[in-house]
Amino acid sequence: MEKKTTLHPIPPVFDENSRILILGSFPSVKSRETGFFYGHPQNRFWKVLARVFDDNVPEDIPEKRDFLLRHQVAVWDVIASCDIRGSSDASITNVVVNDLSVILNKADIKAIYVNGTKAYKLYMRYMARQTDVSCTKLPSTSPANAAWGLERLYDSWKVIREK
Fold first, then answer.
1. What's the 3-state SS for 85-127?
2. Which carries the bigger pLDDT value, residue 128 or residue 46?
3. Does domain 4-155 have CATH number 3.40.30.10?
4. Domain map of the chain by residue range?
C-alpha cells in the first residue's frame, strides 16, 4: 500500500462548555470513511468513555456528538495532514498539525489527554509550547493496542472524570 498525503476530514467537536480535550493522532481509514472520530467498530474509545461517564455507549454520529458535548469533552486530532499508509500511525510522515487555538480560544479547557503514544509524541513535539494546559498520555484505545484489555483501559482513562 502506497503512502499518500491525506487531509484531516473531520472538524473538531467542542462547544464553549467543553472542559476536557482528547486528542488522537489522525483518523483511521474507517473514521475517514464514516466522517467521525473513532469510527472503527473495534476501537474501544466509545466503550471506555461510556464507562468512565457511567453512560450508554453512543451508536451513531449524532449520539456520539451529543455524548461528548453533554460530558463537556472536546475531541480532535493532533495532525491536520500527513503522509500515511492506511491507518498506520507508524507510517506517518510530513506532519502538519492542527491549530488548537480554534478550541482553546472558545472553550475553558482544563486538561488535555492524548490517546496513545504517537499522538503524545507529536503533541509534545509540535504543540506543548502553544498551550497553557497540562497534558496526560493515555493508552491507545485502538485495536492495534491488543496488550490493553477493556478493563485496563478503563482503569487508566477514568482519570478524565476527575477534571
1. CCCCHHHCEEEEECCCHHHHCCCCCCEEEEECHHHHHHHHHHC
2. 46
3. no
4. 4-155
What is the C-alpha radius of gyration for the chain, rounded to an integer number of angstroms?
15
Residue 134 has pLDDT above 90, yes or no: no
For residue 56, the 8-state DSSP code is P
Q: Could you report the per-residue pLDDT of 52-80, keeping only the tens digit for each?
A: 999 999 999 999 999 999 999 999 999 99
Question: How many angstroms separate the CA atoms of 26 and 31, rounded?
Answer: 9
What gap in Å lies between CA 28 and CA 20, rounded to an integer?
22
Question: Distance of alpha carbon 46 from its chain centroid, rounded?
Answer: 11
Tell me the C-alpha distance between 151 and 64, whole Å: 21
pLDDT value, residue 131: 84
Using CA atoms, how far apart are residues 91 and 3, in angstroms rounded to an integer?
A: 8
Place of cell 472524570: 161
Burial (CB count <10 Å: 0-12, 13-18, 19+), residue 89: buried
